[in-house]
């Protein structure tokens, strides 16, 4: 505390010279204390600013970390890197799962061949070969599923690279799977229908949003996901994983699309030969399945497809439900 310089009693009995000397000393002390006060306040202000800045940086850092982490998290309902579709009474539904977390590996779906055919298809929506195969065989394969004869696991991949249309289309499928998994099949079909007439560079993000909306799925969160390419990192990683190894199959890696695996066996026939695929499916089912003698057979009352859209083997599994 500075001396009480307004107290005149401290000068009592002093000569003029001493009073002047004392006044100068008191003034010097006041200046020193003022300097200390200002310096202390300045330090307090600096510390406060540093604390605020560190808080902002910490918040920004966490936001960046969370954003980066989220970008490597896979979509919900695609824990296997694909989405598993099953059918009953003509309705096709998706199997719900957790999402793949950063640094974790996909969990392959169980290959239970005792009940229904297990169809697994790797699809690149920018591939003309995929368009050829799907236009020839897609409706037949899906009729197996809707009738309950088979399950279908779709794996969208992007062999054109992370900046390709294939990657953006696969991201669109992931966005739908993440939000409305039961809508994946109509979106898949809409993307397939576009392959034959794709412009250079494929559809834009806005056009992909329109495609999804026109297929009956007008959802702001899905539109934002597509425009923001929210699962682009997952698409890149899932493609790399498929190119490194294929689970539950007699092929080691994905080299080209489409790749159809039926009960663990890869179809290697002509893409535009529906009869060849039907024969392959029937023969594969006969080799793999061990059906009961009198139960689980395909309907013989005319309800089973007879035009190549369902297994023709008489022991083909009956529709679930």
UniProtKB/TrEMBL annotation:
The chain crosses the membrane at residues 43-65. Pfam families: Thioredoxin_4. Keywords: Membrane, Transmembrane, Transmembrane helix. It comes from the Bacteria. Residues 287-321 are annotated as: Disordered. This is Thioredoxin-like fold domain-containing protein. It comes from Herbiconiux flava. Residues 289-313 have a biased composition (Low complexity). The lineage of its organism: Bacteria, Bacillati, Actinomycetota, Actinomycetes, Micrococcales. Residues 132-281 form the Thioredoxin-like fold domain.
């Amino acid at each position: 505390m500075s001396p009480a310089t307004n107290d005149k009693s401290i000068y009592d009995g002093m000569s003029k010279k001493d009073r002047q000397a004392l006044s100068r000393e008191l003034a010097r002390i006041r200046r020193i204390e003022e300097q200390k006060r200002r310096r202390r306040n300045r330090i307090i202000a600096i510390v406060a600013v540093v604390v605020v800045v560190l808080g902002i940086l910490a918040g920004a850092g966490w936001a960046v970390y969370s954003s980066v982490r989220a970008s490597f998290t896979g979509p919900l309902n695609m824990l296997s890197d694909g989405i598993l579709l099953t059918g009953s009474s003509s309705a096709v539904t998706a199997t719900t799962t957790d999402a793949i977390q950063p640094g974790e590996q996909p969990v392959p779906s169980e290959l239970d061949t005792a009940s229904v055919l297990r169809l697994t298809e790797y699809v690149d929506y920018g591939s003309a070969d995929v368009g050829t195969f799907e236009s020839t065989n897609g409706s037949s394969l899906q009729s197996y599923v809707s009738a309950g004869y088979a399950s279908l696991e779709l794996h969208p991949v992007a062999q054109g690279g992370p900046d390709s249309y294939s990657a953006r289309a696969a991201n669109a499928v992931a966005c739908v799977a993440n939000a409305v998994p039961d809508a994946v099949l109509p979106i898949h079909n809409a993307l397939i229908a576009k392959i034959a007439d794709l412009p250079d560079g494929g559809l834009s993000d806005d056009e992909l949003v329109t495609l999804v909306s026109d297929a009956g799925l007008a959802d702001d969160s899905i539109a934002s996901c597509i425009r923001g390419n929210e699962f682009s990192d997952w698409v890149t990683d899932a493609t790399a994983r498929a190119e490194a190894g294929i689970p539950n199959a007699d092929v080691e890696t994905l080299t080209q699309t489409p790749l159809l695996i039926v009960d663990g066996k890869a179809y290697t026939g002509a893409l535009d030969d529906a009869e060849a695929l039907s024969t392959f499916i029937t023969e594969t089912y006969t080799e793999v399945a061990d059906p009961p003698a009198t139960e689980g057979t395909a309907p013989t009352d005319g309800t089973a497809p007879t035009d190549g859209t369902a297994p023709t083997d008489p022991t083909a599994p009956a529709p679930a439900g």
